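To: structure desk
From: M.T.
Subject: fold request, one chain
Message: Could you run this one when you get a chance? Sequence is below, nothing fancy, just the single chain.
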Amino acid sequence: MEAEGLDWLLVPLHRLVSWGAAAAMVFGGVVPYIPQYRDIRRTQNADGFSTHVCLVLLVANILRILFWFGRRFESPLLWQSIVMTLTMLLMLKLCTEVRVANELNLKRRSFAAGDSRDEEPKAPPRRSYLDLDPHHFWHWSSFGDYVQCVLAFTGVAGCVTYLSIDSALFVETLGFLAVLTEAMLGVPQLYRNYCQRSTEGMSLKMVLMWTSGDTFKTAYFLLNGAPLQFSVCGLLQVLVDLAILGQAYAFACRPQKPAPHPAHPASAKAL
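Reply: Done. Structure tokens follow.
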């Protein structure tokens, strides 16, 4: 009788906790990018944030959405992929606008310093994904180029998935590729920090949120019996997050020369 009397409290509480966990899964992944987005807008400098992070997340989440059609998993994970895809497009839009504006400002300053009055400063050469230049891949001049590239990738991957959806091997491989790509999320930032021997411009708050979010996400996968690929992905992401935090500590413990930013004296940070 006493246990039955508590049901009116425990059942709604259990539902509330479940809804809270689902909401955290859907929107928690984008929270780390909020401080990075604000820092880039405030400093008008996107140098410290690797846009290849956006590339990794776009590919991973598009593949995960396609994986859902072959093997249905929990709806919050599907919605998480949709929300993250939109968020990465917003990050790309801001980074592209800031980078192109800074390149133009640098040209104008060089023009003014040269005291050249006969010619107007020329805008930087336009780079498009249709140029098929590997040196400028994912470093284009217009946000529209990124959108077209994402749509082209989605269309090709969607057609292949539609034609192979009945193959269990293909579906499992698709899921593995999706989570493996996502597990490599922090690798572009890790590599950028290594090349620059600095974490200047990278938002430490973003990486701390990455780590806490990936830890929560991995626990969610394990407790809710998500496909094995998801748990493996989560564990790899936590390891990469810890490696980036190790870089931040190591580079902070030794003196380093600040990298010059001719177009903008203030340095930004990065998620």
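Reply (cont.): The first helix runs from residue 2 to 28. Let me know if you need anything else for the meeting.
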